[in-house]
Amino acid sequence: MALLTMREALNRAMVEEMEKDKNIYLMGEEVGHYQGAYKVSQGMLDKFGEARVIDTPISENGFAGIGVGSAMVGLRPIIEFMTWNFSLVAIDQIINSAAKMLYMSGGQFPMPIVFRGAGGVGGRLAAQHSQAFESWYAHVPGMKVVAPATPKDACGLLKSSILDNNPTIFIESEVLYGMKGEVPDEEFYIPLGKADIKREGTDLTIITWSRALSLVMPAVEDLTKEGINIEVLDLRTLRPLDEEAIMKSVRKTNRALIVEEGWPVAGFGAQIAYLIQKDAFDYLDHPVERVTQRDVPMSYAANLERESLPNPERIKEKIRSMLA
Amino acid sequence: MDFYYQMLLIRRFEEAAAKAYSTGKIGGFLHLYIGQEAVGVGSIATLKPQDYIVSTYRDHGHAIARGLDINKLMAELFGKKTGTSKGNGGSMHFFDKEKHFMGGHGIVGGHISLAAGIAFASKYRKEDSVTMCFFGEGAANIGSFHEGLNLAAIWKLPAVFICENNHYAMGTPEYRALSVKDVSIRAVAYDMARDRIEGDEVCKIRDHIKVAVERARRGEGPTLIEVSTYRFRGHSMSDPAKYRTKEELEKYKQSDPLLRAQLDLLDLGLKKEDLDQMDTEINERVDAAVKFAEESEEPPLSWLYNHVLAEDK
User: Fold this and answer.
1) So which residues of A are the catalytic ones?
2) For residue B313, is pLDDT > 60?
3) Is some CB atom of chain A closer than 8 A to the CB atom of B47?
4) B118 vs A69, A105, A106: nearest CB
């Protein structure tokens, strides 16, 4: 098994699929000649040429719309947002066009498009460049929302997203691009909508996804030394949501904590908490809890940024209180 | 003659729709095209079957000019399962994949970059298709117009952008909204070909649009065309259009494209009785469409969750 960084794993996923299907193209700012703002598309211009690895001007609304229009007639675009923060100027195309096209046309126009790019909280990038958008897009029916936490998952999930006939929101944590992990050498796919148990345990279930997993794991390791045995469920895909995996785990451990990088109000964790109280109420020994980003825009100051995120200290504190 | 038939069909279809709306059989918004018929008919006449059309929320005229089945269109307005979008779209969202009618779209100007995307796909696959995109002068002020036209121009996409300037963006007259009155002049900013015409003579419109369609087909890039036209009704059925004077409306009614076409046909020697006979036939077709829509079933409740997501590949 090869040890790949997240960006290499994503690159491999795109290359493998583009080699098989000429209808797939990659479009976005700096994806070609610059080799990708975050180097995810490194080498792809040389491999596929300018017709399929397409640099755009700074026009998110425009090139998101180009992607949607081209998908209406059967191309399979991968639209890269340099960061998801910039997707807000294209949100009309994502929600009003991509997500609704199939429904409002009575099933005539499937939308095989992937919107992907860097997301989440960056290293001291302040309020406009540091925020998690999973909850925003997961709110909308008609799309799939994927947020991988490891290089292997990133590769397998992106390949499935590219083959999917629905608009897929694929959010890559900016701070994880350099993370290394084992990725199988042979070709593989990870189905959308299947959660993964990243660690088995008995005392409490942490439900998380994307970068938050890397904040959870150190906390879990620390607590293990205190004799606390935690199960960690990585959702990988928010839409469709693997409710079965959540319920199975919570029914086993009887306690659920959701850890997410996004804000708490109307956040995705609130939806999960609702589902758990509805479907696993009798199994709960403690109210469902959440550790989220604080309910404030992101600060530039290093100490405030750390405090704003669901850091290991906050996670440990919450878990101890739930087991007390 | 064909043009006159199509324009009259659009007019009568929409008059029937307005009537059905006032009795509550059609819901939502209903934006009528009455007065603008010559633009859609003249423009779409220049297209081949492989070409694509992208329309706005005021899409009835474009759909009929493209030859979509008026029974299905009326059924869509009535929200019936036999409609073009199976009742999920309504007035603003007519779609017909077979006819390459790529939708009425409800967000002003948002569809301009979609049209660029369809044209992009034609170029990507080296297919001989042109994409024609309609929008109003109000859409010329939204970012998607700028981004869509700029991308279409730098990539020389086979697209024709037709601004149907009816001089009012809902209730806002153009002089309060456009920094330059001539929308077509914005093409200069994108180094794009442009044209500007009056919208009351259907054959003249066809002749102008044809030049742009051929330019696109030759791979010489997109054109922005502004067609000056006028809607005789309000922005939608709920708009009494009090922001304009009766005199203004009367003035424009003198250059009603249907009236002009009728006079031209009479000049060519057609008899009034023949035109009246055509009107009768069209009215029968429209009545039949209304009957079809009325008698069609509503979509079953089990369809509520249909087409939210496509089946897996």
Assistant:
1) 60, 129
2) no
3) no
4) A69
